[in-house]
Amino acid sequence: MSIDSGPMREPDTPDAWPLSLFAALAAIWLLLALAPSYRADWLLENALVFAALPALWWGYGRLRFSRLAYAGLFVFLALHLLGAHYTYSEVPYDAWSRQWLGVSIDAALGFERNHYDRLVHFVFGLALAPLAHEWVNLRVGATRAWRHVIAVSFLLSVAAIYELLEWCAALVFGGELGMAYLGAQGDVWDGHKDTALALGGALLASFAIGLGRPALAARSMGR
């Protein structure tokens, strides 16, 4: 069954894969909850996790998605938890690359700021596209092309709403906490670039999904 046909299993069919990912994510969360760089910012960043995980657990018994969709969600949330631990603008990816690989990512690519937040916004669109497509395929009665458009539009709208929430939080909390949560690092176009990267990831994944479906169909016909 292809991604265009929605969940891979019925809700009453047991599957250890999403439960294992949930357990692994819980372990990562507990580990990164220990001594974060800025506890107040960690709490703000984890508001997403506090809301998402109970909703996913509640929905697991009612609606199942493919293993690819669950894996994408796991990757995104794990990267988000890492960003919350250090704050996005201070994740030491460049120090890690110099220590483990002997190469400075920032120097090699000419980066003048910490780009971890850019990475996670791109991964948001890329990794959550399978889940978005499967959900749209279940809920929307439209042609395949329009379902692709709706799935990408949904991810774009969520990315834009998140940027608006970041801006509102920065206004409400102000000071260092507001700026740490906003993570603009002095870039007045930060929100625009983050949203564009999420859109780019969603478009790339949707293109791959569109290419993958005919390949799956061809293999099925060849059996």
Protein described:
It contains ten helices and no strands. The protein has 223 residues and is mainly alpha-helical. The protein has one domain (3-221). The chain is globular, with a radius of gyration of 19 Å. The protein starts with 15 loop residues before the first helix and ends with a helix. Residues 4-10 and 214-223 have low confidence and may be disordered.
| End-to-end Cα distance | 14 Å
Structural class: mainly alpha
Share of residues in strands: under 5%
The coarse overall form would be globular
Oligomeric status: single chain
- Portion in helices: over 70%
Rg, alpha carbons: 19 Å
Order of helices and strands: HHHHHHHHHH
What count of helical segments does DSSP give? 10
- What is the domain tally? 1
Total strands: the figure is 0
Mean pLDDT: 81
Tags for this model:
single chain, 74% helix, mainly alpha, disordered C terminus, 223 residues
Provide a short characterization of the protein structure.
The chain has helices spanning 16-32, 39-45, 47-60, 67-86, 93-100, 105-109, 116-139, 144-173, 175-182, 190-221. The protein is mainly alpha-helical and 223 residues long.
Secondary structure elements and pairings:
Elements: H1 16-32, H2 39-45, H3 47-60, H4 67-86, H5 93-100, H6 105-109, H7 116-139, H8 144-173, H9 175-182, H10 190-221
Helix pairs in contact: 1-4, 2-4, 2-9, 4-7, 7-8, 7-10, 8-9, 8-10
